[in-house]
Amino acid sequence: MSLTLHGYWRSGAAWRVRIALALKGLPFETVAHDLRTGAQRDDAYRTLNPQALVPALDTGVATGDAVLTQSPAILEWIEETHPAPALLPADAMGRAHVRAMAALVCCDIHPLNNLRVLNALRQELGVDEEHVAAWIARWIHDGFAALEALVARHGGAFAFGDSPTLADCCLVPQVYSARRFGVDLGAYPRIVAIDARCAQMPAFQAAHPAAQADAD
Ligand SMILES: N[C@@H](CCC(=O)N[C@@H](CS)C(=O)NCC(=O)O)C(=O)O
């Protein structure tokens, strides 16, 4: 099976998928779509992902629809088709907690700060950069306060327990985004410690935006 990830070096959603692929030791090709020039809206890419968002994963599967979209669905597909090393706990309760942490980031933080949302604030509602920054920080603080509490409850060396899970695949890119936007992470020592631990691991290093061929 030959995997091709359509992404962009600084896309947090594509980064989640890169981390999972790296943790599983799965080789993949990359096709970069420069979000700054709107390449994700090209007709050719829309045939792969009608939403015009990255990532999309071409699974190379010969039958059926081979291209997957939406990073949470892609992460689940990777986990189901390549179970080792497991990125979800063995028990249903644990899996639900990991999925809840991942959803907190993927559904309740990241979409509010995505490029098209920020551009809609700027261009359609006339919001200035100071207030765009306040908007970004507002939703990161809202989500990270809850995530910090969940990590205190369930975490160990990682967001859930003592090995990486899908929750860490989502946490790390969101921390990078928070720092990029200048959000103070002082209130979230557990999240910061997990991010630092992940940064020591080769799989997370390989998936980092700075390590991507299309990085500036
Ligand atoms: N829920 C989607 C979100 C995908 C998404 O928002 N991708 C961003 C990059 S992180 C994107 O393509 N943005 C382009 C745009 O806003 O036009 C997923 O998790 O895959």
Structure at a glance:
This protein is of the alpha+beta class and 216 residues long.
Total DSSP E strands: 4
Name the poorly predicted regions. Answer: none
The end-to-end distance, rounded to whole angstroms, is 30 Å
pLDDT averaged over residues? 97
Bound molecules: glutathione
**Class by helix and strand content?**
alpha+beta
β-strand amount: 5-15%
Outline, from the CA principal axes? globular
So how many helices?
9
What strand order characterises the main sheet? 2-1-3-4
Helical residues, percent? 40-55%
Tell me the Rg in angstroms. 17 Å
How would you describe this protein?
This protein has helices at residues 12-24, 43-46, 71-81, 92-108, 115-123, 129-154, 166-180, 189-199, 202-207; strands at residues 3-7, 28-32, 56-58, 67-69. It has 216 residues and is an alpha+beta fold. A hairpin with an 8-residue loop joins β3 (56-58) and β4. α1 runs parallel beside α3 and α7 (166-180) packs across α8. The longest helix is centred in the middle third of the chain and has 26 residues, at 129-154. The protein binds glutathione.
